[in-house]
Specification:
- The complex is a heterodimer of chains A (about 290) and B (about 425).
- Chain A has eleven helices and two strands.
- By secondary structure, chain A is mainly alpha-helical.
- Chain A has a single domain, classed as ABC transporter involved in vitamin B12 uptake, BtuC, CATH 1.10.3470.
- In chain A, strands 1-2 form a two-stranded antiparallel ribbon.
- With about 425 residues, chain B is of the alpha/beta class.
- Chain B folds into two domains: about 210 residues, Response regulator (Rossmann fold), CATH 3.40.50; about 110 residues, Response regulator (Rossmann fold, 3-Layer(aba) Sandwich).
- In chain B, the strands form three sheets. Chain B has a seven-stranded mixed sheet with strand order 7-6-8-9-10-14-15, with helices on both faces. A five-stranded parallel sheet of chain B has the order 2-1-3-4-5, with helices on both faces.
- At the A-B interface, α1, α4, β2, α8 and α9 of A face α1, α2, β7, α7 and α8 of B.
Chain lengths: ~290, ~425
């Protein structure tokens, strides 16, 4: 049982890391980004290539940078024309990009599932008293906790973070006051993408990588964001951990239901709190 | 509201993407229908999780078609292909097959990526009275509960693999603790039932069977339970990328060292994905290029030609695709007509030798009866190439492991 709780916690952290980018981008840009899973997949493949030649550390550096760069280009070339369009157009364009990315990865790397081995220093498992747990997964979890805190500090404690938060409240007013909302938006977008890319690279020794990887994480991440509250930072954290634990504990009791349970949870949350656990009941828009 | 008729840049881009998506989802090889040709429908996954397997089948089909056409075709007629991407989705596979038959005039459909698509296409072909040479489908149903008069399946089925693997394991692990992580659908259940039926009878104890939904990415909760149970054998009844993920994750939990790992079915692409962690994993396959090329001249010719042409050895799905094309040709020539009923009469009970030694087509369920290999994986570091993934532990005669007429659920039609 304690083993399952730990497992659920770590699984939840992965969802948190991916949902984070989704929720801050939604909060800032009011944009539903279905291409977010593609960022994860690109990060995983960049990580794979770099890790095979230069090791894991280089991969963890290269993947977020490459993905952030991709996100900036994607944002400037395509996405910015859709900021003011309705949600349907945004979903169509981001979903389209996700499909193009998936099939491009398939074309370049083939459909075979790939992975790279965990570095020797981090392989094996640690005896935690109540359970044996793979060392790499524990380091991975610790890393995500650090990333979540850093992203939070960026949003809460820096000037850019201030513009971001103000932009969420009233975009026009911030622009009138001389804040560069456009730049802040791009930075937020790149940040969310970079985190997804980093997690993609770090997670590939655990989950393996194939071109459809992005979609398999995107859907639970969306559920997490909806449960936590669209646009809410700590909502994504709470939602992610909740979904992780729910899945892990369901595997213990009724394994076949472990996929369905998160949608049941989402439906229940939507019935009781339509704006999510930590979401604001009414979105204030400029 | 944008009332202008002139599209904005944004609308243009959406339109472009929608158009390219339309092309992606409906890639169609238009075939003119000249006389003196026979159209065959090659219905394989070109996108989606089994696209590697689909691409490899397509290579083998095309190699066979080129060879056959170069030697004068089938009864003097050249073979033409009509290709469809089934995306491993049953509705797409059925739509493809329908188009191939109705529009392109295909006289035979072949291919497959899963038992789901195979069963769906088999039903359509029965309705259309068109021959279906199923290729990559391992679930029992294709020639058991959902068997059809117009369908032939040569690939080993789950019953055969599970029986063969369990028997090989008995001598060493027959009385140990067995832990199962099973994909929660027909194929997984059928494997579980067959393996436990063999090993439990000899005293093996089933500790637990954790069912996982299809396309699970994280098996850690199941693996934590397995770790706590300290089993002698960990049976991972998963296929495709789920199998790759589960075996790799089992390795990180130390289970590949502490327990014997079993996987009911593998192919070259899955073994490549598992890499070093495939060391000592026991599995089955209907064909293994390295083994068969060393034993049968016809297999050697096929493997050598395929490798020379494409730069990689054929996977077991490719071998089945190649042989299926030749079996269809030979059946037509024996019957001397394009009438499916005449073809089927000449196929049923027919004994032949191709790449695997003697084999035959069973009359009452149209299952191909041929050998099952039980293999043991070798680590990536010890392979001469990425596809040289195993050594052969045992070869089981197909008849000895197949579903029997007494236990079959197949009630085949008369026409």
């Amino acid at each position: 049982m304690p083993g399952q709780l730990l497992d659920g916690f770590i699984r939840g952290l992965v969802y948190v890391a991916i949902a984070l980018g989704l929720t801050i981008v939604f909060g800032m840009l009011r944009l539903v980004n279905f291409a977010h899973g593609a960022f994860y997949a690109i990060g995983a493949y960049v990580g794979l290539i770099v890790a095979e030649r230069y090791g894991l550390a280089a991969a963890l550096l290269a993947a977020p940078l490459a993905v952030a760069l991709f996100a900036v280009v994607f944002d400037r070339v395509l996405l910015r024309f859709f900021y003011e369009r309705d949600g349907t157009a945004q979903i169509l364009v981001t979903f389209g990009v996700a499909i193009v990315v998936e099939e491009s990865l398939r074309l370049i790397f083939g459909g075979t599932t790939r992975s790279f081995p965990v570095p020797d220093a981090l392989s094996g498992s640690l005896n935690l008293g109540f359970t044996q747990y793979p060392t790499y997964r524990l380091c991975f979890a610790a890393g995500i906790v650090v990333i979540v805190l850093l992203v939070w500090l960026f949003i809460e404690r820096t000037n850019y973070g201030l513009i971001v938060r103000a932009g969420i409240r009233d975009r026009t007013m911030v622009q009138l006051l001389g804040g560069n909302v456009q730049l802040a938006s791009t930075i937020v977008f790149a940040l969310g993408a970079g985190v997804a890319g980093l997690v993609g690279a770090a997670a590939s020794p655990i989950y393996s990588v194939d071109p459809s990887t992005g979609f398999s994480f995107l859907v639970p991440a969306f559920v997490v964001v909806v449960i936590g509250g669209l646009g809410s930072f700590w909502g994504a954290v709470l939602g992610g951990l909740l979904v992780g634990e729910l899945q892990s504990l369901t595997t213990l009791i009724l394994p076949a239901a472990s996929d369905v349970v998160i949608y049941v949870a989402m439906a229940l949350v939507l019935l009781v709190r339509p704006s999510g656990l930590l979401g604001e009941s009414e979105v204030i828009r400029g | 509201m944008n009332s202008s008729l002139k599209p904005t840049r944004g609308q243009f881009i959406v339109g472009g993407l929608a158009a390219s998506a339309a092309v992606k989802f409906a890639s169609i090889n238009v075939i003119a229908a000249p006389t003196k040709t026979l159209v065959v429908g090659l219905n394989v996954p070109q996108t989606g999780p089994y696209s590697d397997q689909g691409a490899d089948q397509l290579r083998a089909y095309r190699m066979a078609i080129l060879e056959i056409n170069a030697k004068g075709g089938v009864m003097g007629m050249q073979i033409e292909e009509s290709v469809g991407d089934d995306q491993t989705k049953a509705p797409v596979a059925v739509e493809n097959a329908r188009r191939m038959i109705e529009r392109d005039g295909a006289v035979m459909i072949t291919g497959g990526s899963s038992t789901g698509t195979a069963v769906a296409v088999s039903g359509l072909c029965q309705e259309k009275k068109t021959i279906f040479m199923a290729t990559l489908t391992h679930g029992d149903e294709t020639t058991d509960a959902n068997c059809h008069y117009h369908t032939f399946r040569r690939y080993n089925n789950a019953h055969m693999s599970a029986q063969a693997m369990a028997r090989t394991m008995l001598s060493k692990y027959g009385t140990g603790k067995w832990f199962y992580i099973t994909a929660d659908y027909n194929w997984g259940h059928s494997n579980f039932d067959n393996i436990t039926a063999v090993v439990e009878a000899k005293g093996a104890k089933t500790v637990a069977n954790v069912l996982t939904p299809l396309t699970t990415t994280d098996f850690s909760s199941a693996l934590s339970q397995a770790q706590a149970a300290k089993p002698d054998v960990l049976c991972i009844i998963q296929f495709g990328k789920d199998m790759v993920a589960c075996v790799n994750q089992a390795a990180s939990f130390g289970l590949t060292k502490s327990a014997k790992i079993l996987v009911p079915l593998s192919d070259e692409y899955m073994a490549k994905g598992v890499g070093d962690n495939f060391d000592n994993v026991v599995t089955t396959a209907p064909f293994y290029w390295k083994y068969h090329a060393g034993k049968y001249p016809e297999a050697k010719r096929f493997v050598d030609d395929f490798t020379a042409k494409y730069g990689v050895p054929p996977s077991n799905g490719a071998e089945c695709a190649y042989t299926n094309m030749y079996q269809w040709k030979a059946g037509l020539e024996r019957s001397g007509s394009l009438d499916p009923a005449a073809f089927i009469a000449k196929m049923e009970g027919y004994h032949f030798t191709a790449t695997k030694g003697p084999e035959y087509w069973r009359t009452w369920d149209h299952q191909g009866i041929n050998t099952v290999l039980v293999l043991e994986g070798v680590p990536a570091a010890e392979r001469e190439n990425a596809f040289a993934y195993a050594k052969v532990l045992e070869v089981h005669d197909g008849e000895s492991v197949a579903i029997t007429q007494a236990t079959t659920k197949c009630k085949i039609e008369n026409s």
